Amino acid sequence: APQRAAAARGRVARSSYESGRINLDAELGESKSLPVPVLEASEATNRAIMDCIEEGCSVDALIELDGKLARDEQKIQASIEAVKTA
Length: 86
Fold this sequence. Notes:
Layout: H1 2-16, H2 24-28, H3 43-55, H4 59-85
């Protein structure tokens, strides 16, 4: 009987937060709209980074790729702050 009660408590907790699923309500409360930042980095950026690692590239190319990632990081951070203050 104690094992069954523990299992029932576990089911209740999982019904409000399910592993492997996007649980927006658990993290964002009532808000359903999220800002979607437009990112510079893409699959092409990822490939360019991998090519630089594997084959080498110029410092200028690395600086350009790093700049894209840094600008995207700032956009994502700004979006996180907007969600927190909303």
